[in-house]
Amino acid sequence: MARPLNAGVAGPMTGQMEGLMMVTPLTLGELIIPRAEELFGHRAVIARVGDGVHRTTWAETCVRARRLAAALARLGVGPGDRVGTFAWNTHRHLEAYLAVPAMGAVLHTLNIRLFPEQVAYVVDHADDSVVLCDRSLLPLWRAVEPRLSRPRQVVVLPDLAADDSAAAQSSDLDYEELVAAAEPLAAWPQVDENAAAAMCYTSGTTGNPKGVVYSHRSTVLHSLAVGLADAQGLSSRDTVCAIVPMFHANSWGLPHASALVGASLVLPGRDLSPAAICQLIESERCTLAAGVPTIWSGVLDHWRRAKPDLSSLRFAVCGGSAVTESLSAAFEREIGVPILHAWGMTETSPIGSVSHLPVEPGAEADEATRRSYAMSQGRAVPGVVLRVVDENGAPVPRDGVTMGEIRVRGPWIAREYYRDGAPPDKFADGWLRTGDVATIDALGYIRIVDRTKDLVKSGGEWISSVELEGHLMAHPDVLEAAVIAVPDPKWDERPLACVVPRPEARGRLTAEALLEHLRPRVARWWLPDAIVFIDEVPKTSVGKFDKKVLRARYAPGETAAPLPVSEARG
Ligand code: ADP
């Protein structure tokens, strides 16, 4: 499996002298699990399961991972076999995060929010052998089973009391019984660092889910990067609350990084309500928590009402979609906790860039400049090479104005998809084409303007749907807003805004008021041609705005054609 010297390097030079450092493997069994076990065994792992809180340690987690590995081997799981997980963020899921890769098998985290057909598609596509399923999710899993090409052995993780689930079957095995019956594996096998450790399918915002396969090497290097001060700066002094699901993009790498650096890890289970999250952060004195903007806006609303003590947080890490100015400013000014804005995608493990304020002279001069950096997606983290390029692949000027597509490369960036190869719209000349359109400034800070497919192309010029949404959502009467392009005979495309008014503003908020609000903020030709008021913005399986659904709903020829601006009223 070893790749030749210079593999992946364009135009390698010949005749180089070989370095004389050890080539010890960058694997979980060599570098991650032993640290958690031997150096930080006393540090806490805390999981909310069912109605209670389960407290354990890294030492106990690692011993149970050794038992789990032995138990899975007894079930016939061998090197390279895929083990699916269908589970919330809990200590048992964490055990699988360690055991499955370290035993040489492949952890396949299944997104519980996909439709049953999509889950069945990815289970079959990855050819999972065994599926570890939370008891609370058995009803969902049972809807997947009839759609599978062949039955899979289910191992039930008891996150609820047995009689809480009517969905159990006699063929299911009990996780706790298996783990208790197995002797802990004495030593982890020698695994090639380029072997697959885990896989995760993209959520399919842009088509069929595609399998991203992380290697041991990419996982170890990504975990090291998460510990860098210019990334999340994770260390043994942290208590990390991983709100972002372990079934999507590896919970942003936090479980493996926490094990590596010896941070305490807090896992919220299935209750992701703002009150439950705040209660965990407060009671466990978390120093860092990570979630998508919708989580943090929920937390902000709750904080305004209940004032939980969140002062232990160094940062609220936020990514997955753009942070709005109102959220970023309110978090810092009202709660006193800065939002740390990060960008990435399933294909980038996922950390690509993080926004810390620059220290370069003048950069922190005034509040508006500071806010602009805080809201930017930041600079590429060490280990990621990032370019913003035009349609010919040439870098755009670093002027903070010119837009182009972000391309990245690096040791934790995917080079192809599992059994779907490297489609040219996603991979080109050794780079991952992210599909994200951004500007880059002189200091290397990127600001995502849109996804290529979401930009509104009007009269040959681009309108950023993300920017329009940000302005609309800053209006006090607006809860959510999504902007899509609708075909236009004269301009090719024009923006249509789908707006969810706050409950108290329903029936009162008018399209004219919103246009009035936008006028001083955007160019005239950016103003939406139509504004429709809706009850809710449809969301994807990972809580992002699902513009595919809105486009289908408001494309001409559909029954619900958009109302002209003047007729629309919330
Ligand atoms: P999918 O591609 O299946 O929607 P991902 O979770 O991989 O799922 O999403 C990655 C995408 O999310 C990025 O390409 C980008 O468009 C968006 N994204 C992630 N982080 C940010 C951010 N901080 N700001 C704006 N967009 C973001």
Using the coordinates above, name the CATH class of the domain at 32-272. Alpha Beta
SS-based structural class? alpha/beta
**CATH homologous superfamily classification of the domain at 32-272:** ANL, N-terminal domain
Tell me the major beta sheet: 9 strands, mixed
How helical, in percent, are the residues? Answer: 25-40%
Low-confidence stretches: 557-570
Strand content: 15-25%
General description of the model:
The protein has 570 residues and is an alpha/beta fold. Among the domains are: 32-272, ANL, N-terminal domain (Rossmann fold, 3-Layer(aba) Sandwich), CATH 3.40.50; 454-564, 2-Layer Sandwich (GMP Synthetase, Chain A, domain 3), CATH 3.30.300. Helix content is 27%, strand content 23%. α9 (274-284) crosses α10. The radius of gyration is 24 Å and the shape is globular. The N and C termini lie far apart (60 Å). The protein binds adenosine-5'-diphosphate (ADP). Adenosine-5'-diphosphate is lined by residues 202-205, 249, 319-322, 341-346, 377, 434-436, 448, 451, 542, 544.
